[in-house]
Specification:
Elements: E1 2-4, E2 9-14, H1 29-35, E3 45-48, H2 61-81, E4 85-90, H3 96-107, E5 113-121, H4 139-143, H5 149-154, E6 166-173, H6 176-183, E7 188-190, H7 201-211, E8 214-220, H8 242-253, E9 258-264, H9 273-294, E10 296-298
Parallel strand pairs: 2-3, 2-4, 4-9, 5-6, 5-8, 6-7, 8-9
Antiparallel strand pairs: 1-10
Helix pairs in contact: 2-3, 8-9
Length: 305
């Protein structure tokens, strides 16, 4: 495993409507770009968007997500192969599966990759445990090889993530069957900050880093309190403030093993969108600044697949 300073950043923007997104609520990609937040990495950057078809709600969702994930994964892998740091914005948690696919395409299925998942929800349901039927509640389980194989394979994930390489942070709203599934695995639930439920984040992340060559840090904007993302469709009350989440981001980045970073589900329209965009901008800024300070992880010796 190599550790290197950020020399160039590729931002992969995901502009795809999906199940459960309110009509008229696009992601905030344009607002984020206009804010200049990507320059906070302190290195030259480029912005790319794969051309994705809207999800057709009249057709089965899983294979459509597999196709979209494969296209996103290629953008991620191409950037990693060129030596760039990769951040994904836009989209929602469904698109997170593609980032893991891109990491495996670039570094090989044998690369020891870990996942830190910051979210108000575990998103670890399967088609057998889900209460809602929403695939947006399943991406962690998909990456772990527990459900939806066509989606996982479409994303280019050859080796599912072992559960002991998954750290869920906050996840303050879990469905009962989902929680039972998580507790039956070696997945760790960590606290976002002092006084919150879960094991100590620094300890959990330190243990994860000792097992992995690199870490994928994923953040759903709904991890912050509902008042800070007022137009988020899955907002949850009693969440942390932005500063607490920024501190948690820095804890993960301090390992020096973050190989990819994503922030999803910033809604850019509707009442409260200015508040949501401000929260998302602050989280992206904190992530990019601390990533630049700590450096990124790369895997040596593997050629892109």
């Amino acid at each position: 495993m190599a550790h290197q300073a950020l020399v160039r950043l590729t931002v992969v923007g995901v502009r795809q409507r999906s199940f459960g997104i309110r009509e008229g609520d696009p992601t905030a990609l344009d607002a984020l770009s206009a804010s200049g937040v990507y320059a906070h990495a302190g290195v030259p950057y480029e912005y790319v968007e794969p051309t994705l078809a809207p999800i057709d709600t009249a057709r089965e969702e899983e294979p459509q997500l597999g196709i979209a994930s494969g296209m996103i994964a290629k953008k991620v892998a191409d950037a990693l192969t060129a030596g760039h740091a990769v951040a994904m914005t836009g989209g929602d948690c469904r698109h997170s599966v593609a980032v893991l696919g891109g990491l495996q395409k670039a570094y090989g299925a044998a690369a020891r990759i870990g996942l830190v998942w910051m979210d108000a929800h575990g998103d670890c349901n399967t088609t057998h445990t889900t209460l809602s039927g929403m695939l947006g509640g399943m991406p962690v389980a998909v990456m772990a090889g527990l459900t939806c194989p066509r989606w996982r394979e479409g994303a280019g994930i050859v080796a599912p993530l072992p559960s002991d390489r998954i750290v869920l942070v906050d996840v303050r709203n879990l469905d009962a069957p989902e929680e039972a599934l998580i507790r039956a695995t070696d997945t760790t639930i960590a606290a976002i900050g002092p006084g919150r439920e879960g094991v100590d984040l620094a300890e959990a992340v330190g243990l994860l880093a000792s097992k992995c060559e690199l870490i994928y840090l994923h953040i759903d904007a709904d991890i912050v309190d509902a008042s800070l993302v007022p137009n988020h469709i899955t907002q949850e009350s009693e969440g942390p403030d932005v500063l607490t989440v920024c501190a948690a981001i820095r804890t993960v980045m301090a390992t020096g093993k973050v190989g990819a970073f994503a922030l999803v589900s910033i809604a850019g329209a509707g009442p409260g969108s200015d508040v949501s965009v401000a929260s998302g901008t602050a989280l992206i800024s904190a992530g990019l600044k601390s990533w630049a300070e700590e450096g990124m992880a790369r895997v040596d010796g593997d050629k892109p697949m």
